[in-house]
Amino acid sequence: MGPLVFLILLVVVAAWLIGAYNGLVALKNQTLNAFKQIDVQLKRRHDLIPNLVNAVRGAMDFEKSTLEAVIQARNQAVKVNATGPEGIKQISQAENALSSALQRLMVVVEQYPQLRATGNIGQLQEELTSTENKVAFARQLYNDTATQYNTKQQQFPTSLVAGLAKAQPADLWEIEDQGEKAVPQVDLSLKPKT
Amino acid sequence: MTDEASLNLFQQQEANRRRTVVLVVGFVAFFAWLGFGGDFIYYLFTRDAPRSVYHHTFPWFGIGLSLVAAAIAWYAYRTGPEKVLWSTGARELVEPGTDKERQLVNVVEEMAIGAGVPRPRIWIVDDSDPNAFATGTDPLHSHIAVTQGVLDLCTRDELQGVVAHELGHVKNLDVRLMTMLAALVGAVALMHDGTSRVLRPGGGSSEERKPSPLLLILLVVWIISWILAPIIAQLLALGVSRKREYLADAMSAQFTRNPLALASALQKIEGAEAPTTHIKRGAAHLCIADPLGRRLTSHEGLFADALATHPPMAKRIAILRGMGYAQLKQESR
Asked: Do A137 and B113 lie within an 8 Å CB cutoff?
């Protein structure tokens, strides 16, 4: 009777070990895959920006500095050649700067209705919105998956297998740019504008 | 609702795979019962007949019907999504012509990224009533269809919410179960219409013989199951879809992080009074909102629980609003 119980116990423990190990490996690969998805979308964004700038350049000689900021941020972001989740800090810094530059450009385009009426600016705007959303959703998926992965490897009893599966906490994509973090100020005091 | 919603994604997928298998096995078993039951009755009927008359000894009907049912199920699995799309007259959106179509393609691509599934094929149903549905057998072979009404009425954010709801169905494999159900319900209805014409009394034998009580009981049960088949199939379709809507709403909120957009989209869909004429009864349980515009869906209760394909819209909107305000509260902290 004794050896049988021991054997059953051994089988149960082994089954759990295999399950936990495979679960961690699967999550790790999902995290890597989610990161690749961000990369794909960032590449798309970098390719789109020159088109966008060319399209609005003629129509908005007056907002040179905004455009230049976008171009500069884009070139900066392209230059970063870190790959994989390890370089996420570097990538996210450059990309967040590009995001805020693009947002300023969008606000400017919004302010000039005649700009939206001319040519294909409307289409480009839709394209830009979509690209920004894609980057944001890819980021969200990555963060969700990475959080799941991190939680799994830290939780008991899976944490016992974490070393065996070479699980390392994955860095999340943080929004570090102050401009993006800041809460918009709303003035409701009804003071006449001067 | 809670028992369903508390499962994680993997468990939901597993449950849907299992239910699809149960559905198919049940379907084949039902036809086997009809076939072999018929054989047995025929056997009892001819057992005491004189030697010169035909004796039914080999279960031809049972084997035949079982094979037919298996073939139908296989065919339904292979072509179910196409059949569902065909029945609604949807056209595939390949080259977006208008700005709105361009936007739809973009939104679907965005939400596919957010949901972490491959981009489904996109279809448009030329119907001015807003509605949407998803079909397919797995995330790699999935389709999303929206009506022209959705494109006309919804803002970009609302469209996102609707598309994310459908992608929720795709991701947790609801589409497989619901598409199979639609195809099999359709098959049962079709077969029933065909066979009840044959079974209708009129050309019966005029032989004066006393059948045994066992034979009579069997005959009655057998005939009743023929009559009940489409009703059972329909009830199955109803019960299976209601809880899923809450779940897909929650998944939409998870993908977009914007439950209020879906709430306002649902309100617009509810507000549009006209029924979605292009979507027939057979595909009703696939849709985001009841395309038949039945009043049953406006309240909950025993009767509605048994007969409605969709949960009450007001309750869905209230739940989504609750999520939205909880989110706002968290952000302002």
From this structure: yes
Q: What is the DSSP secondary-structure string of B272-292?
A: --S--TTS-GGGGGGBSS-TT
Has residue B180 got a pLDDT over 60?
Answer: yes
| CA gap A22, A25 in Å, rounded | 5
CA-nearest residue to A139 within chain B is B114
Q: What is the pLDDT of residues B24-35, one digit of tens each?
A: 888 888 888 888
Cβ neighbors of B152 (< 8 A, separation 6 or more) are B100, B128, B130
Q: What is the pLDDT of residues B189-214, one digit of tens each?
A: 766 666 655 555 444 444 445 556 77
For B328, other C-beta atoms within 10 Å of its C-beta total 11
User: For residue B220, what are its two tokens?
Assistant: 């009655």
Residues whose CB is less than 8 angstroms from the CB of residue B188 and which lie 6 or more positions away in sequence, other chains included: B27, B229, B230, B233
- DSSP for residue A193: P
Please determine, for the modelled complex, whether the ipTM score is greater than 0.90: no
Q: Which domains are assigned to chain A?
A: 2-168 (1.20.1440.20)
Strands B121-125, B132-138: pairing kind: unpaired
For residues B67 and B82, give the distance between their C-alpha atoms in angstroms, rounded to a whole number: 23
- CB < 8 Å to A130, chain B: 103, 106-107, 109-110
B118 phi and psi angles, rounded to 5 deg: -65, 155
- pTM for this prediction: 0.80
More confident residue, A81 or B3: A81
Query: Cα–Cα distance between A95 and A140 in angstroms, integer?
Result: 15
> What is the distance in angstroms between the Cα of A33 and the nearest Cα belonging to chain B?
10
Residues with Cβ within 8 Å of residue A133, at least 6 apart in sequence: B106, B110
pLDDT of B187 > 80? The answer is: no
Does residue B172 contact residue B13 with C-beta atoms inside 8 Å?
yes
**C-alpha distance from B27 to closest chain A C-alpha (Å):** 34
Catalytic residue among B166, B207, B208, B273: B166
Known active-site residue B166: yes
